[in-house]
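To the structural biology subgroup,

Please find below the input and predicted structure for Helix-turn-helix transcriptional regulator, which we are adding to the shared reference set this quarter. The sequence is reproduced verbatim from the submission form. If anyone notices a discrepancy with their own records, reply to this email rather than editing the shared folder directly, so we keep one authoritative version.
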Amino acid sequence: MDFYDRLREERARLGLTQQQVADVVNVHVKTVRRWESQVAIPLDALVPLLGIGYDVQYVASGIRSKNVAEVREKGVDYEVMPGTTREEVELLRVYRALGATQREQARAMLNVLALKTSAAREIRQPPPRGARKTKSPSRASAAAKPRTRKGRG
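Predicted structure (tokenized):
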């Protein structure tokens, strides 16, 4: 999702029409349409959008800012990467509730699991295409012996 998509998404989230946004920013509605379809928006136009509830940080970066009211009312916390699952958020909450020793143990266990997972992947993966096959020991030693030419007669 790019800047323009997020701009359109924020307007939809707030339930605003393009005309309402145009009125707030004091531009023609066609200008708002252009902003939402790959035409650059001037930075000074973002300031009035803040006043009507746009998450300008999200529009610019793709990472939601933390809205204190939403955190209190709905338990929403935007301090996570986009695409993070509820399960991952719950794991983080549990981790944060642990003491220092328990956190250290949890990290150690995760490191062991990560090592086992990466080792298992390496075993299962076939060699990359074009990789040279290694010669068997008997062929390798035979290849290392110098060949002698039989003389003619």
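Summary notes: The chain has two domains: 3-74, 86-123. The chain has nine helices and no strands.

Regards,
Lab coordination
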